[in-house]
Amino acid sequence: MTCSWSRPNDPAMTLAACADIVAKGDPDRFRAVMSVPLAARERLLPLYAFNVEVARAPWVTEEPLIAEMRLQWWRDALDEIAQGGTVRRHEVVDPLAELVRGVGGAGCSVERHDRRQTLGYCAGCFRGLVRF
Questions:
Q1: Residues 46, 92: contact at Cβ < 8 Å?
Q2: 66 phi and psi, to 5 degrees?
Q3: Could you tell me the sign of the dihedral formed by the alpha carbons of 72, 74, 78, 80, in that order?
Q4: Percent of the chain scored above 70 by pLDDT?
Q5: Cα(17)–Cα(43) distance, rounded to whole angstroms?
Q6: What value does the CA radius of gyration of the chain take, rounded to a whole number of Å?
Q7: Which long-range contacts (CB under 8 A, 24 or more apart) does 94-102 make?
Q8: Of 34 and 117, more confident
Q9: Which end of the chain is more exposed for a tag (fewer CB within 10 A), N or C?
C-alpha cells in the first residue's frame, strides 16, 4: 500500500487534498463546487483551496509576524508560478500552478500590495474573533 504523502505528483491526490481543504475551511463553497462538472471542479478546487489557505493566515497564530510570514510564503509561491519555472512542493501550489499554466498564465505578474494592506497594519483586528 502506498501512503498519500509518497506520491506528491499524483494529480488525484493533490486535487483530493484541495477538496479536503475547501470542505473543511469553506463548506458552503465546497457544496457549491460539487454541483459543477468535474472539469470545472478541477479548476475551481485549487483556487478555492488557495483562498482558504490565505484567508486563514491571520487565524492560525496569535503573532502578527508569523501570519505575515505565512502570507509571504504564499506571495513567494505565486511568484514562482508566475515565473513559469519549478514551484515549491505543496498540495495546493502544485495544482494551482498547473491551472495557471493551463490557461496561459505563465509569465503573469503577481501584484504586490502596499505594506499598509498587510496583516501587520491591523494586527489587532482579529483578536477575540472566532477562529477557523
A1: yes
A2: -65, -40
A3: positive
A4: 69
A5: 14
A6: 16
A7: 94/8, 94/9, 94/14, 95/11, 95/14, 95/15, 95/18, 95/42, 95/45, 95/46, 95/49, 96/46, 96/47, 96/49, 96/50, 98/11, 98/46, 99/42, 99/43, 99/46, 99/47
A8: 34
A9: N
Per-residue model confidence (pLDDT) at position 5? 39
Residue 122 is predicted with a pLDDT of: 46
| Distance separating alpha carbons of residues 97 and 46, to the nearest angstrom | 9
Of the candidates 132, 86, 73, 80, the one whose C-alpha atom is nearest the C-alpha of residue 110 is 80
Which range has the top average pLDDT, 22-36, 50-64, 112-126?
22-36
Q: How confident is the model at residue 58, as a pLDDT?
A: 83
Helix (H) or strand (E) holding 23: helix 11-25
Q: What is the DSSP letter of 114?
A: P
